[in-house]
Amino acid sequence: MLRCLVSKGHQYVREAAKRGYTVNQDGLVVSPKGRAWLCAASKSRSRAGRGSYRYFSLRVEGVSSSVLVHQLVAYLKYGKEAQDEGVQVRHRNGDPLDNRPDNILIGTRSDNQMDIPETVRARRGSFSRKLTRVQEIALRKDRGNGATYKVLMVKYGLAKSTVAYIVKKRTPSEGKVDG
C-alpha cells in the first residue's frame, strides 16, 4: 500500500509504543512501569452520537497530545500497516470503548461500517429512512398545495434542509429524477 505522510496522531501512537505503553487483554492501557488503567472517553472525541474513543495523554518535547487507545492496539498488533493510507482501525463488535486486542482489526472504510450493528447503521441512513415513500409524496403534495417549509418541518419532524431535499428530489419510482 502507498504510505501517506504520518499524521501527528500516528506519531504519538508510535512514540507511546516506543516508550513501552501496551494494552492488556482486557483493553486496559499498561504504562511502561506496569500500571494498568482504564482510559477516559472524552466527550470532545464524540463522533456525532456514535460514542467516544478512549484515550490517554502523552507529553513529547513539552507538548501534550492524546493517544487513541484503539490506534495504539492496532499499531502494536499490525505495525505500520495499521497506519497505511486508506486503512481504518475497526472495532469488531462496533463498540468504540472496547479496546481488547481481539476486538481490534484493521480494514477498509466499508469493513469498518459493517462492524457497526445493523440497527445503528439503519438509524444513520438518509432522509428516506425518516419517511416512507408515501410520506415523501405526501410532503411534496403538501408543499405543492402551498404549505410553508416551517409547516412541513413541524408536521413531518424534519430539518429545513431535509424538507428542501425531499421537495426538490424526485425518486426513480416517480419517473422524475433530478440530476
The portion of residues forming beta strands comes to: 15-25%
Please name the CATH architecture of the largest domain. Alpha-Beta Complex
Structural class: alpha+beta
Please tell me what the overall shape is.
elongated
CATH structural class of the largest domain: Alpha Beta
Number of strands: 8
Number of helices: 7
Mean pLDDT: 83
Helical proportion, percent range: 25-40%
Low-confidence stretches: 44-50, 175-179
CATH names the topology of the largest domain as: Homing Intron 3 (I-Ppo) Encoded Endonuclease, Chain A
**How would you spell out the order of helices and strands?**
HEEEEEEHEEHHHHH
How many whole angstroms does the radius of gyration measure?
22 Å
Strand order of the largest sheet: 1-2-3
The end-to-end span amounts to: 35 Å
Biggest sheet overview:
3 strands, antiparallel
* Domains (count): 2
What this model shows, in words?
It is a single chain. With 179 residues, this protein is an alpha+beta fold. It folds into 2 domains: 8-123, Homing Intron 3 (I-Ppo) Encoded Endonuclease, Chain A; 127-174. Helix content is 35%, strand content 16%. It contains 7 helices and 8 strands; from the N terminus they run αββββββαββααααα. The chain has helices at residues 8-19, 69-78, 109-114, 118-123, 133-144, 149-156, 160-168; strands at residues 22-23, 29-30, 36-37, 40-41, 54-60, 63-68, 88-91, 104-107. 20% of the residues are buried. Residues 44-50 and 175-179 have low confidence and may be disordered.
